[in-house]
Backbone:
């Protein structure tokens, strides 16, 4: 499946002209990111990109706290570092976009994420960053809670689905207490 997907991505990149050839060079989006404001800069510069621009080459230039450009050779290495750091920041429970389950520390959207004025746009940005990682073949470790994944995959529409079955992935202690009462 992975090889099939990678082949499909390669063909799409060729069709869209996103692959370097002897006769053409792909469109490159350049972004400048301050290390101290990585999430804010990344969000501002990438959220408005079109779908094809997101699929294309994105070159990142980091700027340190003193405003000096950092040296870095971006053969997707700097972009990969940027993507990994952004994903780490958006899934940090301290940001309050996502929370972790008790016990196994799995991620799910925070019920209080609305405290961010632009929380829906932030979730969309998170989705774009995860999509870009998958599209580019960059492996990121994002341990989602199984009840959240079931919702994303639409399993809750199945005749055999019961939300109580997902409760242990949210709070195993609560599930244990509830079943002991039953």
Residues:
């Amino acid at each position: 499946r992975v090889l099939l997907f990678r082949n499909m991505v390669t063909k799409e990149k060729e069709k869209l002209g996103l692959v370097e050839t002897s006769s053409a060079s792909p469109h490159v989006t350049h972004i400048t990111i301050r290390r101290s404001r990585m999430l804010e800069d990344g969000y501002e510069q990438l959220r408005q990109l079109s779908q094809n621009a997101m699929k294309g080459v994105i070159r990142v230039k980091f700027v340190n706290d003193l405003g000096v450009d950092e040296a870095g050779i971006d053969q997707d290495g700097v972009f990969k570092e940027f993507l990994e750091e952004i994903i780490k920041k958006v899934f940090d429970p301290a940001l309050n976009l996502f929370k972790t389950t008790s016990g196994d520390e799995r991620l799910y959207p925070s019920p209080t994420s609305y405290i961010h004025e632009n929380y829906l746009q932030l979730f969309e940005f998170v989705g774009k960053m995860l999509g870009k990682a998958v599209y580019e073949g960059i492996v990121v470790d994002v341990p989602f809670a199984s009840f959240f994944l079931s919702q994303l995959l639409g399993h809750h529409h199945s005749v055999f689905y019961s939300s109580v079955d997902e409760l242990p992935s949210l709070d195993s202690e609560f599930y244990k207490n509830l079943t002991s009462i039953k």
